[in-house]
Amino acid sequence: DLQNPHSPESNFKQNTYVGVCDCAFSMSNIYESAEATLGFISSPCLTKVELRVACRGISDRDALSKPDPCVVLKMQSHGQWFEVDRTEVIRSSSSPVFSKIFLVDYYFEEVQRLRFELHDISSGNNGLRDADFLGAMECTLGQIVSQRKLTKALLKQGNTAGKSSITVTAEELSGNDDYVELSFSARKLDDKDFFSKSDPFLEIFRINDDGTESLVHRTETVMNNLSPVWKSFKVSLNTLCSGDHDRELKCTVWDWDSNGKHDFIGEFHTTFKEMRVEQEGKQIQWECINPKYQMKKKNYRNSGVVILNHCKIIKMYSFLDYIMGGCQIQFTVAIDFTASNGDPRNSCSLHYIHPYQPNEYLKALVAVGEICQDYDSDKMFPAFGFGALIPPDFKVSHDFAVNFDEDNPECAGIQGVVEAYQNCLPKIQLYGPTNIAPIIQKVASSASEEMHTKEAMEYFILLILTDGVITDMADTREAIVHASHLPMSVIIVGVGNADFTDMQILDGDDGILRSPKGEPVLRDIVQFVPFKDFKHASPAALAKSVLAEVPNQVVDYYNAKGIKPKCMSDYESTRTFSP
Fold first, then answer.
1. Of the candidates 20, 40, 2, 3, which has an alpha carbon nearest to the alpha carbon of residue 415?
2. Separation CA 163–CA 154 (nearest Å)
């Protein structure tokens, strides 16, 4: 900037706040440290790691029943634990091997603290609210990666070690991110139950180079059926066969038993190369063999037949594939103007415009907006306010344009949003309540139009800055569930010192947010971050925490819809001819 005082960046910084207040100096500091991280959102992490989890020797909740275990993975960020993901619940098992695989980003230069919590989930409810805590293990991701396999005791409350232990196995992913979709069925399986038919499920194991087995997938159980059709599932080629199409796979069929002692029906061995034959339209099937019966019974043929109904390779694209293909990030800001923020003329107010220091609303806005604007070619950002009485008739509004131009609420760059915010404060009256569903619905309607194009052209990010717990929780949950079907993500930054624990419900009690009617979100699109956790950290740290999920959310949306990135030539031609 010093070498070229006329560069747009230096212009941008020098003009910030000029004529509004004298805090250009401290704002430019924020801009510079946000700028320093501009590369992070697109820089690939060092590597992705798959974590598999198994437990042993879990003590029973009571003498009559075995526990129904579930492991929750948490990661530490700024001294607080956040849930990353959780395994399925396995019924009646004291030594569960979970089929759920945790996929985590591994940064060599960071200490990434992990916590694995084991819970006994009461039947009929998969939430943690009524679950019994059975123990936890803390370690770093580096420890697991360096040892490949880490076994530690599970510590109960008070850090006392019981008899139970947890084993976490790590595997680095190679470059190929492609997935395969498989669906299996079976015919004439052996009947293992006296009073009804078998309840079969299928397990697929990958045979590793050292001869050990890794569980790749466990299907659901089909009750009382000797010719089950299992649901199709997706698995990465890395997980299935480490990208080696000739690697041996072992498939085992079991008869499920409620006491956890499942009966072995039979097994067969195959490779992904063999499965791919199905893609050419040839049906492929395997005899399911029980080796004991094979040795003992003279006329034994098999214990049933397993059929591969469907095998399809799904090409996975990356965040950069979509961005380079011309996908624009449409960034919208919504600011809380409710009375609980305090009178903006008072220096204690969260909306107070300090001559030398930006308030928390501005800090959060700039830190996140600076990064998003790099992915938006027109750099025009709609900015809305909610919870204020607005001119001319001073009625309460929950989605008014901060520049008071309802036909064109867009501001030029983050600087334009900052100026519109400051100009709007003296003209409105802070009021309430804190309703955010209307603004989510407003952005969702734009995202809905984009969805119908069936192209990866625009993805919407809504940044909501609020000082308190929202009052329209039911409507907000409904709006988020609807928005989870659209190309959009919602980031909520909690400003000030309110107790934001209720906001965590937007991440769901059992890991899944549901609408009041019980409909689950299609995908996780909400990220909630309390600003106070980052008060003494750099704007870069806030931006990184808030935006870390976005690339995966973009990729998950388009990949799930089967929408490919537009290639550059397509993109250029549509830009040239658009009016």
1. 20
2. 8
Whole-angstrom Cα Rg for the chain? 27
Instruction: State how far the Cα of 452 lies from the Cα of 486, in Å rounded to an integer.
Output: 10
pLDDT for residue 444 is more than 80: yes
Ranges assigned E (strand) in 315-372: 328-336
What would the two tokens of residue 199 be? 């309840």
pLDDT-derived band at 577 (thresholds 50, 70, 90) equals very low
Please name every residue paired with 235 in a beta bridge, in sequence order, or none if there are none.
180
326-374 pLDDT, tens digit each: 888 899 999 999 999 999 999 999 999 988 888 989 988 888 887 777 7
Tokens of 542: 């806030």
- The span from the CA of 399 to the CA of 390, in Å, is 11
The answer to whether 526 and 490 are in contact (CB under 8 A) is: yes
Q: What is the reported pLDDT for 484?
A: 95
Beta bridge partners of 267: 252, 289
Phi/psi of residue 241, nearest 5 degrees: -145, 20
Helices (H), 150-252: 237-241
Share of the chain above pLDDT 70, in %: 86
Helix, strand or coil for residue 147?
helix
* Residue 90 CB burial class (10 angstroms; 0-12, 13-18, ≥19): buried
- DSSP string covering 231-279, please? PPEEEEHHHHHTT-TTSEEEEEEEE--TTS-PEEEEEEEEEHHHHGGGG
Q: Is the peptide bond before 433 cis (omega within 30 degrees of 0)?
A: yes
> Among 255, 196, 185, 263, which residue's Cα sits nearest to residue 221?
255
Angle at the Cα of 334 from the Cα atoms of 329 and 337, rounded to 5 degrees:
170
- The per-residue pLDDT for range 60-79, each reduced to its tens digit, is 656 667 899 999 999 987 77
The pLDDT mean for the chain works out to 84
Asked if 401 contacts 384 with a C-beta cutoff of 8 angstroms, the reply is yes
Q: How many residues does the chain have?
A: 579
CA 410 → CA 154, 368, 455, 462, distances in Å?
53, 17, 24, 14
If you ran DSSP here, which 8-state letter would residue 339 be given?
G
The answer to whether 330 and 458 have CB atoms below 8 angstroms apart is: yes
DSSP codes of every residue in 419-457:
HHHHHHGGGSEEB-----HHHHHHHHHHHHHHHTTTSSS
Mean pLDDT value across residues 31-40: 43
Residue 138: the pLDDT is 95
In 3D, which of 176, 130, 309, 302 has the Cα closest to residue 232?
A: 309
Peptide bond into 392 cis (omega under 30): yes
The half-sphere exposure of 472 on its side-chain side, counting CA atoms within 13 A, is: 18
How far apart, in whole angstroms, are the C-alpha atoms of residue 54 and residue 137?
Answer: 12
Per-residue pLDDT, 426: 94
